[in-house]
């Protein structure tokens, strides 16, 4: 049975755009628009979409790095705005680029001990012991405590990023494109590492990525985003074998497949519309191959089509 | 007919007054109108190989080769003036990042027309630019002609890059990770376009990528590189479904595969040695699970069986062993 660790209810977030002139009215882009979902304890929810669709913003909102404009995010039933310390300790984020997310002037030991120092977990000696135990767990040696990020390879740096997120024994980890900057063979070892950690510590992941093969491998359920909205949310197998939303279908068919049979591909025309332009109706209607009249007038709501399979499309 | 043939190409870089090899005596050739893929992880020398064909290597790099021959022209002997004639006219290149390879201060149409005026005495440069812009699938070409790169989306910019590379109908196009910076739906459009242009104009393409899925979709033949060596070369389907070299086998097993879901992924042990730590024998020996004594002593030659070449002493034994498991 699903014990919900995160419940997101109708959140919105918009960002102001630079003004064209000092007298112009300020325009906003709706980065996240009426998004709702939940994450069960111990599962991995994959969040996919193209660049600019708002998936990172959702990650930041859930991680409490940004306040939502509207809507509520509940962590274990409590609004995250009301329990800051609990959220800070129990929700951690792994960032995309291991080259820019580690402080180049601090040693690995310092970086890993920072969360413990900030939250005052134990004495100096205790903290050091814990960091070294963690380093060993991550496949490093004790001597790596005094090394600096530039002395590590990209894969090792990302491993440090993951360990850093684990220091406070969090319940939920938000992984924002954790393996996108890495080569395939290194990617594989990191995914295995994250998988082992999940089993060992009973972690919950919100796994954000644009790489559909990786997401499929790693996730239990998948949410597909397009222009700030979730257009489809279902079990991995449902999404991959029985996608309903035309965008999901096109996205899946666009992925270059290494092993499968050659498939019929739907190549979408045009680009993702610029964020910020006001848009009537379904956000996908500028590119949708199967649209009907109503698509230009009303935005479809996310509805449960079959058990656990949610789609936002008038034609579903 | 081979349009490009490269024999024993080496590229080395000086570090502390000593030269270290980044590309190590590789040979390959490309037939007219074909698409050749080069795959490998970052730092394996695939971009350097491509740059050496048009002699755009960084000045510090030391290039040696027995032969680099393009369409009857000896590239090794060509001087800078001769190379300028060749680049754009006969060989052109598309780079990975479309934002940084376009001039932000010049209208995109003019940038395409510039290529034409540099190489041909013509008054129709603008017209030719508009024509090729249509060919690469842009709409409203007259409007786009007068726009600056920042006004276009990533996919459109990459189309402009392709238009610029294709405007003089070159015989050979070198594409260095042309879709890595793009989203999958845009990537699908660009790959389709490149394939169309290849068929329409008979342009041969060297397609560099780290993504084997993209390679499979595009290429006729694939070269796998590791630490500056060609370790395996074969037809695309043959390579993906009958890989021989332990590195290729490992690389393919490391890719998440829908049919083996939720099992842990195969990983290649260790890491790529740095350029200064190149092993004496086979460059993959430090990470290979099947290493034997000869591997540590000398570099295995690229042995061909029909058109499938593999650079490994033990590939037959490895094949047998993997089958047994």
How would you describe the overall organization of this protein?
- The complex is a heterodimer of chains A (about 325) and B (about 325).
- Chain A has one domain (about 5-15, about 30-100, about 170-310): P-loop containing nucleotide triphosphate hydrolases (Rossmann fold, 3-Layer(aba) Sandwich).
- In chain A, about 30% of the residues lie in helices and about 25% in strands.
- Chain A is built from nine helices and twelve strands.
- The model of chain A has no long low-confidence stretch (mean pLDDT about 90).
- Chain B has about 325 residues and is an alpha/beta fold.
- Chain B has twelve helices and 13 strands.
- The interface of A and B includes residues 189, 196 and 258 of A.
Q: Mind telling me which CATH architecture of chain A this is?
A: 3-Layer(aba) Sandwich
Please, how many helices of chain B? 12
The total domain count of chain A is: 1
What's the β-strand tally of chain A? 12
Low-confidence stretches of chain A: none
Sheet with the most strands, sense and barrel status of chain A: 8 strands, mixed
Distance between the termini of chain B: 42 Å
Q: For the record, give the distance between the C-alpha atoms at the N and C termini of chain A, rounded to a whole number.
A: 27 Å
- Strands side by side in the biggest sheet of chain B: 7-8-9-3-10-11-13-12
* CATH topology term of chain A: Rossmann fold
Shape of chain B: globular
Strand order of the largest sheet of chain A: 6-7-8-3-9-10-12-11
Mean pLDDT of chain A: 88
Q: Name the CATH class of chain A.
A: Alpha Beta
Measured as a percent range, the helix fraction of chain B is 25-40%
Helix content of chain A: 25-40%
Detail the poorly predicted runs of chain B. Answer: none
Shape of chain A: globular
Quick one: biggest sheet of chain B?
Answer: 8 strands, mixed
**Oligomerization state:** heterodimer
Q: CATH H-level name of chain A... which superfamily?
A: P-loop containing nucleotide triphosphate hydrolases
């Amino acid at each position: 049975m699903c014990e919900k660790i995160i419940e997101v209810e109708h959140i919105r977030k918009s960002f102001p755009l630079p003004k064209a002139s000092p007298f112009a009215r300020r325009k906003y882009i709706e980065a996240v628009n009426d998004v709702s979902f939940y994450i069960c304890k111990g599962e991995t929810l994959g969040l996919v979409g193209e660049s600019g669709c708002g998936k990172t913003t959702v990650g930041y909102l859930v991680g409490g790095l940004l306040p939502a404009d509207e809507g509520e995010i509940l962590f274990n039933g409590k609004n995250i705005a009301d329990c800051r310390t609990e959220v800070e300790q129990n929700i951690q984020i792994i960032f995309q680029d291991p080259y820019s997310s580690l402080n180049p002037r601090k040693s690995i030991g310092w970086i890993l001990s920072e969360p413990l120092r900030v939250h005052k977990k134990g004495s100096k000696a205790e903290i050091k012991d814990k960091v070294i135990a963690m380093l060993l767990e991550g496949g490093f040696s004790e001597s790596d405590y005094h090394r600096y990020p530039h002395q590590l390879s990209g894969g090792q740096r990302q491993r440090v990023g993951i360990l850093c997120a684990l220091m406070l024994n969090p319940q939920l980890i938000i992984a924002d494109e954790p393996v996108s900057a890495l080569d395939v063979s290194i990617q594989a070892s990191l995914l295995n590492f994250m998988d082992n950690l999940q089993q060992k510590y009973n972690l919950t992941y919100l796994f954000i990525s644009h790489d559909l093969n990786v997401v499929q491998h790693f996730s239990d359920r998948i949410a597909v985003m397009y222009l700030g909205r979730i257009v489809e949310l279902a079990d991995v197998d449902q999404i991959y074998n029985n996608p309903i939303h035309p965008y999901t279908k096109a996205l899946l068919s666009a992925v270059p497949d290494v092993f499968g049979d050659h498939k019929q591909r739907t190549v979408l025309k045009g680009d993702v519309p610029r964020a910020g332009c006001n848009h009537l109706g379904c956000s996908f209607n500028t590119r949708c191959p199967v649209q009907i009249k109503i698509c230009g007038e009303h935005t479809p709501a996310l509805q449960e089509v079959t058990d656990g399979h949610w789609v936002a499309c008038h034609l579903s | 007919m081979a349009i490009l043939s490269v024999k024993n190409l080496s590229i080395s870089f000086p570090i502390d007054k000593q030269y270290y090899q980044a590309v190590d005596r590789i040979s390959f050739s490309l037939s007219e109108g074909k698409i050749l893929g080069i795959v490998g992880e970052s730092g394996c020398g695939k971009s350097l190989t491509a740059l050496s064909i048009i002699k755009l290597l960084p000045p510090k790099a030391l290039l040696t080769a027995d032969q680099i021959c393009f369409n009857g022209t000896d590239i090794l002997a060509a001087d800078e003036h001769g190379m300028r004639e060749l680049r754009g006219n006969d060989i052109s290149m598309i780079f990975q990042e479309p934002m940084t390879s376009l001039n932000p201060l010049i209208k995109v149409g003019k940038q395409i027309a510039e290529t034409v005026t540099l190489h041909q005495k013509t008054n129709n440069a603008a017209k030719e630019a508009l024509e090729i812009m249509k060919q690469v699938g842009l709409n409203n070409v007259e409007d786009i002609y007068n726009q600056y790169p920042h006004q276009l989306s990533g996919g459109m910019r990459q189309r402009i890059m392709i238009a610029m590379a294709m405007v003089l109908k070159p015989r050979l196009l070198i594409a260095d990770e042309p879709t890595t910076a793009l989203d999958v739906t845009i990537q699908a459009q660009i790959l389709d376009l490149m394939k169309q242009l290849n068929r329409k104009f008979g342009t041969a393409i060297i397609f560099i990528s780290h993504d084997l899925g993209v390679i499979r979709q595009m290429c006729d033949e694939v070269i796998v590189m590791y630490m500056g060596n060609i370790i395996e070369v074969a037809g695309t389907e043959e390579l993906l479904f009958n890989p021989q070299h332990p590195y290729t086998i490992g690389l393919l097993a490391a890719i998440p595969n829908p049919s083996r879901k939720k099992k842990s992924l195969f990983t290649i042990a260790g890491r790529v040695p740095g350029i200064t730590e190149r092993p004496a024998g086979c460059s993959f020996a430090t990470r290979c699970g099947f290493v034997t004594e000869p591997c540590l002593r000398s570099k295995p030659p690229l042995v061909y069986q029909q058109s499938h070449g593999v650079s490994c002493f033990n590939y037959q034994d490895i094949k047998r062993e993997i089958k047994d498991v």
